[in-house]
Amino acid sequence: MSSWEYFCYTLAIAYAALLLVYFFGWLFIPRSKVQKNYQALNSFSILIAARNEENQIEACLQAIVAQNYPPSFFEILVLNDHSSDKTAQKVEALMQQYPKHCVRLLNASEHGFSGKKNAIECGLQQAQFANIILSDADCTRGENWLPAIDAFMQERTCSFIYAPVFFSSSNLFERFQSLEFAGLVGIGGAAIHLKNPNMCSAANLIFKREAFVAVNGYADNVHLASGDDEFLLHKIFKKYPKEVFFLKSRDAVVYTTPNASVDQLAQQRRRWVSKSTKYENRYITAILMGAYFFNLSIFVNLILGFWWPGFAFLGVMQLLIKMLAEASLIGSILLFFNKLGMLLLVPLVQPFHIIYVIVIGVWANIKTYTWKERELK
Predict the structure, then answer these.
(1) What pLDDT score does 264 carry?
(2) Which of 50, 221, 293, 368 is the most exposed place for a label (fewest CB within 10 A)?
(3) CATH number of 32-268
(4) pTM for this one?
């Protein structure tokens, strides 16, 4: 066996072994359920940063006010970050429509914030409750979302909770994104359960304000546009390792929409990947680099295989290992989301996934990107 073959198979085996660890980590997360004798206990301040979300914000807020939860036990703070559309007007109209609910609009022009992290910090200063929930303006949820979170918190001491997020999809392009993101959610949940957290999503995060303050919030990464979720996860876990959890409950799922175009997808993934070299815990960077070189080696082998069959065989073997490992993990995650039929897309998505990992992995770290009509680094 040549050095190159040894290198390629080592990458493939390491990749499969890592996904196997996450597979068992995901399976061993206990399912959380709201008991029949449940009664609401905790109060929540729900922070929603919004910029030009006039088409999404109304459905988002209506899903929250429709919760099976006492209105006096939660408030909604919409952090309007210099929207140039009718986001603010939509929020104001809903405030009039639901006078029994505490819905507050904080405009950046009045409170002096800019960017998501600054908006969240402003919201924390204005929030009246100690339990903070972060979500996005393009998210919806079922009516038992808050009861699921509250019931989970009643059973344990929690400083930080990551709850599930799922991409709703209506076409093949969106289903590809939904499949990938389901895998990321499952990996994030499994890693938290294994006490070695790596990723999460600010679309569905719950934390104690005192924990945020204790770790100095975003103080050391406020200059980075991304990472309002993962950096906070890592910092709180470092200080409170026994108080960080993944909430595995279908009632707690938040639903959002995938990107509508390839350009939007590229910009979003560049935003995510741009923080890959900024993690304090270097094992996360090492894993990301390993996955990158594994996908790159598959691509190189398949290309060289047009001239030398031995490379083609090696690339195909790597690809089979990749598909089997990913199908095992993603299948268990899709079963939780009741979307097992999407597993059939795993073979179809492979060529696109390999190419986009290779391109985005480099592109995100050498160029600026555009997000919410802002050019960011």
Answers:
(1) 74
(2) 368
(3) 3.90.550.10
(4) 0.90
